[in-house]
Structure formats: structure tokens, C-alpha cells
Amino acid sequence: MSQFPFRPAHGLLLAPILALALTTPAHPQAARGKLLQQWMARRAQANDANAPAVAAARTLAYGADPKQVLDYWPAAGGAKRAPLVLFVHGGAWSMGDKATATGKWKPAHFPAAGYAFASIDYRLVPQVRVEDEAADVAHALRYLLDHAAELGIDPGRVVLMGHSAGAHLVALVGTDEQYLRGAGLSLASVKGVIPLDGAGYDVPRQMGGNAPRLLQQKYEAAFGNDPARQRALSPTFAAAADRGRLPPFLLLHVQRPDGIAQAEELEGALKAAGAEVQRQGFPGEGLAGHGEINRRIGDPAYPATPVIDAWLKRLLAG
User: Fold this and answer.
1) Taking the alpha carbons of 294, 297, 300, 304 in that order, is the dihedral positive or negative?
2) Would 196 be classed as within a structural domain?
3) pLDDT in tens, 56-82
4) CA 73, 174, 149 angle in degrees (round to 5)?
């Protein structure tokens, strides 16, 4: 999720866009959202500008709903048992898709480095609940593992990666085993988890005033007003229930105050539960930094890429 106020970074005229959005009299929330989406699209193009060409993906259905599909890129060189990186996009649990949020660097970089790479769509609020979104992540993984031999995946070397709301979802699936169990899997099915700049790890804290004001409606739509449900959907609280069984986590974030606080809190909960955790921050503020850490993962010039590469190499060696 994103930290406000935004900054007119990288030469883009964000301030006039926001000024127009904030002074639009009719349907101000919708107008603001549309203008911000336009700005985000421009930033995405800038971050993708130097990415290499990406091979065409195989699009596969892991469920009956039109949103239950994924794009799959095999590891380069025809590996028959490659480790898998499974990516989950963000969008405040109610927006976004793999086509616009995956970026061009990841599907180029990870297969070239010897990993199979998949990026999923999933059903969104208000069509479904956040619980169903987490279940979709687990069922997408189950589909890929069921077809591992055909797809060239090593089922024992799987890492979940997600950005923003997707970071929350992979952290939830990686700490609350009920979602994996619902797909016939377990925490042992996940070798590691990489949340990218999430801020929904402790939902009650975010909804208690930590989240940016303009995102409060998104949190309320996703998590409702029941404190017990909010806690149940918080990876920070879920971590305590599976002490000693959690996969390793690599928590990455930029310099957004709520994102830093949430990552630090989740780091502490994971360590208390006996999990191996590495947390690291990178330059970048506001929405620009939040988007950049997603779009530029895989870019060798972006500082988070070698950190992920080294972590994956150590974790998935063999």
C-alpha cells in the first residue's frame, strides 16, 4: 500500500495531477483514483524502459473463474526441475492484474537466472473476500505443483513473492497454514517468501490510523470492521500460531513510514516464532518508491535485485 503525500519524482508532473484530482468537484474519489492510475502507468513505463525482451508466456487456468489464471515462463535452457518463483500482484485487494503489475524485468530476469517464473491473477474485492484471495494464491500454487513435471518445476523449491497487497497475501499464506491446507498443501510446500513493500501485515494497526488517509476506504472494504477478522487476516498475528514451522522470509521495503513499521513488526513476530528472517530497506519514497521496487526487481542496476538473487541462491541451492 502507498504512503502519502506523493512527491513529484523523476521529472513527472505529479503535483499538478494531484491538485486537479483534489479539486475535482464531481465524484472526487473516482477522479483522484483515475488520475493516480494514469500517473502510475507513466511511472511503470519509465521503470520498464530498459528491460530486455520477454518471451511469450503460457497462460494457464488454475480455477473456473476468469480471474483464476496465471502466466508461466519456464527456466531458460530447458531445465526439467527448476526452482519456482510465484509472483502475486498488488492493488489494494480490489484492483490490478498480472498484465499491468508484473512488469517486464521479472519474467526476463528470473528465467534467465535458472528459475521458473509465474505471475497470477486472482479474484478481487468486492467480488470475493480477502480470505478467498489468499485461497486463490494457494490454489494457483497447487496447480503448478500438480503440473510440475510437465512444466519443468522442482516442487521442493518454491518461493512466493508479492508486492503491496500481494505482499500481504503471500505473507498470510506463508504464516497461516489454513490456506495451503485448503489446497491440499502445507507450509512445507513453500521454501521461502519475499514480500515487497507491503503494509498490511498488522491490519488493526493500519486501520487504527497508520494507513494513509486516502487508503482507509480500501482497507475498510477489504477487512471490514470486525477486529477479530482483522487480526485473523494479519500475518504478524498468524506467525505466532505456527511457531517453528514457518518458511524463511526476505522482507524488502522502501522508505515509507507505515511500510517500515509494518515490516519491522512482522520481522519481530517471525523471529519470535523461530523463522529465519532477513529485512532490508532501499531508497524510494511515496508512491514512486513503492512502484519502483515492484517494477525494477530483476533490473541488475536496481539495488534490491542482487539482494534477492543472493538470497534465492542460498535458499534454493541444489
Assistant:
1) positive
2) yes
3) 999 999 999 999 999 999 999 989 999
4) 35
